[in-house]
Structures are given as structure tokens and as C-alpha cells.
Automatic annotation (TrEMBL):
It comes from the Eukaryota. GO terms for biological process: neuromuscular junction development. Keywords: Coiled coil, Phosphoprotein, Repeat. SUPFAM superfamilies: SAM/Pointed domain. It comes from Salmo trutta (Brown trout). This is PPFIA binding protein 2. CDD domains: SAM_liprin-beta1_2_repeat1, SAM_liprin-beta1_2_repeat2. Residues 22-49, 88-122 form a coiled coil. Belongs to the liprin family. Liprin-beta subfamily. GO terms for cellular component: cytosol; presynaptic active zone.
């Protein structure tokens, strides 16, 4: 009996000891659980902070790229400015010599006048001598005045040529697109109504420099007499006389000269090539900024970009061609307003397609963060995805977006979530149109590997070349006529009510509608 009680006592002690250990373990578990929860909260905050930092990093990278290009442009202008200053100093020396000659002629004239008054000789010979001296004096003054204007410097007057009064700027001809942006810059030089054909040699050279073609000024100064020289020149003359071998530089010059000839003021001419490099950031294609900057592609050139132009700029991706095409179309519709793209989220809660069409690449990434896909948003950098491409391109679907975001196919729930958010973004009508097009016969889905090849004329086209206008042969990325007609008339066959009249890219003729109908 005693053994049994002793055994029970031992067991009781062990149970109590185990109970104490269990309570200790439970308290330790609660403590670790609390630490785990705290760690998870900190991790979530770190993720949010990392997402915010990545967004700021992208913004800063874009700003740094823009500032680098701006710095390069300013350095080029500074180099040209030093050259102009040196030339101005040389011309100033010539002006001093001319002034000395004028003073000498004035002294001679005064001597002749004194002699004539003293002798009171009024015969014809003396009168002729006086007239000759007056003529020489007037010619000298005329030469002096032209020399002053050719210095391209402001503040120089014929009677005040001392070095300490020499000031730069003011008389340089600043015409063309840059004059449109700053009307006051060239008002003291010439009347805006003066035809380009009547511009002087120095006005033409000054305009070329402001137009981003300053490297051709030296040869141009040796060739042109006035603006009419450029207007009447043939395309091959530009290469021969100006050394203008870059095809896009030739196109830039020819478009500007055509604008002078037709006197058609295009809103796109107000956007210079620096703005275009920032625009490439907005549409998600910053990797092409160097090529566009080297080609001096400005707003007016965007209107007339062809497939071969983009290939020359090393844009070979089919998706990137479509991105630029849709982005140019958005510019057309907004009359080349430089601020038409939206970079930041606004107050809109349920944006319509007509609002989404103006979203920049960064705004699309902000939308991805808003729909809980922040970790994939940075993958859109350099993809060319913007609101115009999402809305206007029929082949761009949620599957295309998932591919560009690098969402693995096995993550079906994540892709389904993206598809739902994409449908809510573009609207049911746009979704149905995209679905019909995707299920049409001969449909080729968009891929990142698809390339664009140069357009070549076949043998059968050569017999019609003389009958067609040069513009008819240009394969523009975004046809101008269809854009202007649809924007003015507001008539479109495409079913996007929110963007009616905005998308000739989506407009299709009745017979094409039959071809792209759903499969039976």
C-alpha cells in the first residue's frame, strides 16, 4: 500500500512538473508568435517602402536621362557660342578698320568742300568729284551697316564700336520652330511676314543652328545666298553642298522648307527634339532616346515617321512600332499638346477609355500598384506600354500584358486577377472587340520577339511611280489624313463609345468586319 501511494505521489510530482513545462512552452510560443507577427508587419512595411523607392528610382532615372540630354545639347550650343564669339571678334576688328576708312573718307570730303568754297569753282568736274565722294561715303556706310548685322550680336551701333560696348545676342536670326515657341526672340531682327526666300545668308544660318542642325552651318554659309537657295535646291544638293548625309536630318530640313513654302503652320513644329526624348520616357521607350536625339527627331517629324525611319532609328520590335504608332495618334487627337499625357494618378476612380488613352507608361505602372501588382510594375520599364497602346491596339490584351509583366503561366490566379482588372480598365465593349479580333481567322498575337522588316516596292509598282505623288509612297506609321478626318468628323466604325472618333487604327471597313468575325 505504501508503494502504491509512493508511486502515485511520484507520478503526481511528474505531472505537475510537466504541466509547468507545458505552461512555460505555451508562454514561449506566444512570445515567439508575437515576434513573428511583428516581423511580418515590418516586412510588409519594407515591401511598401521598397515599392515606393523603386517608383522614385524610375522617376529619378528618367529625370537624369533627360538632364543628360539637356546637358549635351547645352554643351553643343556652348561650343557654337564660342565659335560665334570668336567670329564676332574678328568681324569687330574689320569694323574698326572700316570705321577708320570711313573717317578718312569724311576727312577727304571735308577737304574737297573747303577747297570748293575757297576757290568758288563750280565747274562740272569739281561737282562730279564731290558726287563721287558722296557716293563712296554712302557705300562705306552701307558696308559698315551690313557688317554690323552679320556679327549676329546685339547692341552694336555704327557710331559706337568700342570693345566695352560689345554685347552678344539680339540680332541673331531665330526663326522657325524655336521662334514659334518664343515669339519675342526674333522680333528685333526681321518682320515675321518676311518670306523665307528673302532671308539673308546669316538669317538662314542662324535658323539652322536654332533648328538643331548647327553642324551644317559652315558649309551652308559658303553655299547659300539667301533663303531661296534652299527652297529651290534638290534633295541631292543638300548632301553635296551642305554635307547633309544623315537621312533624318535631310527629312527634317525638307519638312521645314515645305512648311515655309506652303505657309502651313503645324502645331507639331513647336515641339523640339529635346521634348521628343522626354516623350519617349512617357510612352515607355527610353532606350531609344540616344538614336532619336542624334536624328534630331522633333514633333513635326513624328507626324511623318515611316516604318523605314523607325528601322533606321534601330526600332525593330513590332510591339514598339505599335507603341509609337498609338502614341503619335494620341498626339494628333490632342493637337500636339505637349502636356496631353498624364503621368500621375488623378482624382478619377473609374477612369473611362478616353481618359486611359492619355495615360503614360508611369501612370500604367501606378495603376498596377493600385490593383495589388506592385512587384511586377517595374517590368514595364522599356516595354512601350502606355494608355494609347492598351486602348487603341486590338491585339493588346491582358495576356499580352501578363507576358510583358513576366507573370509565370502557372500562376493562374494572378493572371485571372490581372484579366479582371484589365477588363474593368478598358471596359466591356473594348474587351469584346479585342476578344472578337483575337478569335478571328488569321489572327497573329503580339509577341516580344516579332520584328519589323523594311518596306520594299515590288516590280509591279515601278510602272506607277510617275503617276503617284511622293506622299503616296510614304508608309507613315500613323496616317495623317485618317486621323484628321476621324477627329474632325467624329465618325468611326469602331465600337468604343468612350473614344469615338479617336482611333482610325481601329476603324475597319464593312468587308473587313466580315473577315474578322468570330469563328463558326
Amino acid at each position: 500500500m505504501n508503494d502504491k501511494e509512493s508511486f502515485i505521489h511520484v507520478l503526481t510530482d511528474q505531472v505537475e512538473a510537466q504541466g509547468v513545462k507545458i505552461s512555460d512552452l505555451e508562454s514561449s510560443l506566444e512570445e515567439h508568435q508575437h515576434k513573428l507577427n511583428s516581423t511580418e508587419e515590418m516586412l510588409q512595411q519594407e515591401r511598401l517602402s521598397r515599392t515606393s523607392l523603386e517608383s522614385q528610382k524610375l522617376d529619378l532615372m528618367g529625370e537624369v536621362s533627360y538632364l543628360k540630354l539637356k546637358l549635351v545639347d547645352m554643351e553643343e550650343k556652348q561650343i557654337h557660342g564660342v565659335e560665334r564669339q570668336h567670329k564676332a571678334e574678328v568681324i569687330l576688328q574689320e569694323l574698326r578698320l572700316l570705321k577708320e576708312k570711313v573717317d578718312h573718307l569724311e576727312d577727304q570730303k571735308s577737304q574737297y568742300e573747303r577747297r570748293l568754297k575757297a576757290t568758288k569753282l563750280r565747274d562740272v568736274n569739281d561737282t562730279q568729284v564731290l558726287n563721287i565722294m558722296d557716293s563712296m561715303f554712302m557705300k562705306s556706310n552701307t558696308v559698315l551697316s551690313s557688317r554690323i548685322r552679320r556679327t549676329q550680336s546685339g547692341g552694336l551701333q555704327g557710331e559706337d564700336l568700342e570693345p566695352n560696348h560689345f554685347r552678344r545676342g539680339g540680332l541673331r536670326a531665330t526663326a522657325g520652330p524655336r521662334l514659334t515657341r518664343t515669339p519675342e526672340s526674333g522680333s528685333t531682327v526681321r518682320d515675321m511676314n518676311t518670306p523665307f526666300s528673302q532671308w539673308t545668308r546669316e538669317q538662314v544660318c542662324g535658323w539652322l543652328e536654332d533648328y538643331g542642325l548647327g553642324q551644317y552651318v559652315n558649309l551652308t554659309r559658303q553655299w547659300v545666298d539667301n533663303g531661296q537657295t534652299l527652297l529651290s535646291a534638290r534633295p541631292q544638293d543638300f548632301e553635296k553642298e551642305m554635307g547633309l548625309k544623315h537621312p533624318l536630318h535631310r527629312k527634317k530640313l525638307q519638312l521645314a522648307l515645305r512648311g515655309f513654302s506652303t505657309k502651313a503652320m503645324e502645331k507639331s513644329s513647336e515641339l523640339d527634339h529635346i521634348w521628343v526624348t522626354r516623350w519617349l520616357d512617357d510612352i515607355g521607350l527610353p532606350q531609344y532616346k540616344d538614336q532619336f536625339h542624334e536624328g534630331r527627331v522633333d514633333g513635326r517629324m513624328l507626324q511623318y515617321l515611316t516604318v523605314n525611319d523607325l528601322l533606321f532609328l534601330k526600332v525593330t520590335s513590332q510591339l514598339h512600332h505599335l507603341s509609337i504608332k498609338c502614341a503619335i495618334h494620341v498626339l494628333h487627337v490632342n493637337k500636339f499638346n505637349p502636356h496631353c499625357l498624364r503621368r500621375r494618378p488623378g482624382e478619377e476612380r473609374n477612369p473611362s477609355p478616353s481618359e486611359v488613352i492619355q495615360w503614360s507608361n508611369h501612370r500604367v505602372m501606378e495603376w498596377l500598384r493600385a490593383v495589388d501588382l506592385a512587384e511586377y510594375a517595374p517590368n514595364l520599364r522599356g516595354s512601350g506600354v502606355h494608355g494609347g497602346l492598351i486602348i487603341l491596339e486590338l491585339r493588346f490584351s491582358s495576356e499580352t500584358l501578363a507576358m510583358l509583366l513576366n507573370i509565370p503561366p502557372q500562376k493562374t490566379l494572378l493572371r485571372r486577377h490581372l484579366a479582371t482588372a484589365f477588363t474593368a480598365l478598358v471596359g466591356t465593349q473594348a474587351t469584346r472587340e479585342k476578344w472578337e479580333y483575337a478569335n478571328a481567322t488569321g489572327h497573329a498575337p503580339l509577341t516580344t520577339a516579332a520584328k519589323v522588316r523594311p518596306k520594299k516596292l515590288g516590280f509591279t509598282h515601278f510602272s506607277h511611280l510617275r503617276k503617284r505623288r511622293p506622299d503616296d509612297l510614304a508608309d507613315y506609321i500613323c496616317p495623317i489624313d485618317s486621323v484628321s478626318l476621324s477627329a474632325m468628323n467624329g465618325v468611326s466604325h469602331q465600337p468604343y463609345v468612350g473614344v469615338r472618333g479617336l482611333s482610325p487604327i481601329l476603324d475597319r471597313e464593312p468587308e473587313r468586319r466580315e473577315q474578322v468575325g468570330p469563328k463558326s
